[in-house]
Amino acid sequence: MPYRLVTFLLCFAISSSLLAKPFLLVSLPDEKHLAVYDINNRTGELTHLRNHKTEADPGPMSVSQDGSTLFLSLRTVGQLASYGIQSGTSELEHISTIEVDQDPAYHWQDHSGQWLITAYYHTGRVSVHHVDSTGHLSEKSSFFGETALNAHGVAATNDNRFVYIPHTGPNKIFQFEFDAQNGHLTLLENGVLTSKEFTGPRHLASHPTKPWLYGDYEQGNKAVFYKIRPDGLLQTIQTISSVPDDWPDRQGATARMTLSKDGNFMYVANRGHNSLACFKVHPKTGELSRVGIYPTEPNPRSFVISPNGKWLYAGGQDSGKLAIFARNRRTGVLVRTGTVETGKRPWWLQVIN
Question: What is the DSSP code string of 170-226?
Answer without folding.
Answer: TTEEEEEEEETTTTEEEEEEEEEEE--TT--EEEEEE-SSSSEEEEEETTTTEEEEE
